[in-house]
Design a protein that fits this description.
By secondary structure, this protein is an alpha+beta fold. The protein has helices at residues 2-23, 87-90, 146-151; strands at 31-44, 51-52, 57-58, 63-75, 98-100, 104-111, 129-133, 136-138, 158-165, 173-174, 176-182, 187-191, 195-197. It is 16% helix and 38% strand. The strands form three sheets. Strands 1, 2, 4, 5, 7, 8 and 9 form a seven-stranded mixed sheet that branches. It has a three-stranded mixed sheet with strand order 3-13-10, with no helix packed on it. Strands 6-11-12 form a three-stranded antiparallel sheet, with no helix packed on it. The longest helix has 22 residues, at 2-23. The radius of gyration is 23 Å and the shape is globular. It comes from Dyadobacter psychrotolerans. Residues 1-21 form the signal peptide.
Length: 198
């Protein structure tokens, strides 16, 4: 009985610190990441979830573009260890947010082929796409918000966003170039594979 009491009293400081770390933790500083590479894929959005497609045709009513960024960690919050528990362990209760170090200043989608009578080859057709994320559609200006990219950061430190075509093209053969410009002047450009939108 005495041994149990001794063990209980010896563990009280540890239990108290764990409770305080999890319940009263302050908002941790963010992890900062920077965009590294960009990849683009044709999407088939005809099913329950949009999937990358390697076929040369898809339904024009369910076409989209997936943009994937590989990222590099730019800054990691300092870890302050206490006697019993580290800040990193406490962050399991209060996970730190992720923020992009370099903000996306502009996103353009350029048609390689004639999109319709008013948008010939080389035209900006960004207005015809909308981002789809967490069961909601977002205007293109909204997808530039770093919070959207931050929440979409997965365990592999990759960022992705789906842009769904909201207006059917006038001609079936399509291909698009995605152009991203960052606030530091850096630009990324990638082109999708050609696809027939039937």
């Amino acid at each position: 009985m005495k041994l149990r009491k001794i063990l209980l009293f010896s563990l009280l400081p540890l239990l108290a610190e764990v409770i305080l770390a999890c319940c009263n933790c302050e908002e941790p500083p963010p992890y900062e990441y920077k965009f590294n590479e960009m990849l683009v894929y044709n999407l088939d959005n005809s099913g329950k979830n949009a999937i990358e497609t390697s076929t040369n045709e898809t339904n024009k009513a369910s076409y989209g573009i997936r943009i994937k960024f590989t990222t590099l960690m730019a800054a990691v919050p300092a870890v302050n260890n206490s006697f019993f528990i580290s800040t990193s362990q406490a962050n399991n209760c209060c996970p730190p947010p992720y923020w992009a170090k370099n903000r996306i200043e502009s996103l353009k989608i350029i048609s390689i082929y004639d999109f319709n009578e008013n948008h010939k080859s080389g035209s900006d057709v960004t207005e015809y796409f909308a981002a789809f994320y967490l069961n909601r559609y977002y205007a293109n200006s909204t997808i530039l918000d770093s919070e959207l990219f931050g929440y979409n950061l997965d365990e592999q430190k990759n960022v992705s966003v789906d842009l769904l075509l909201m207006t059917k093209p006038g001609s079936p053969k399509q291909q698009f170039r995605v152009e991203i410009k960052f606030d530091n002047g850096r630009e990324l450009k990638e082109t999708t594979s050609p696809i027939n939108l039937i």
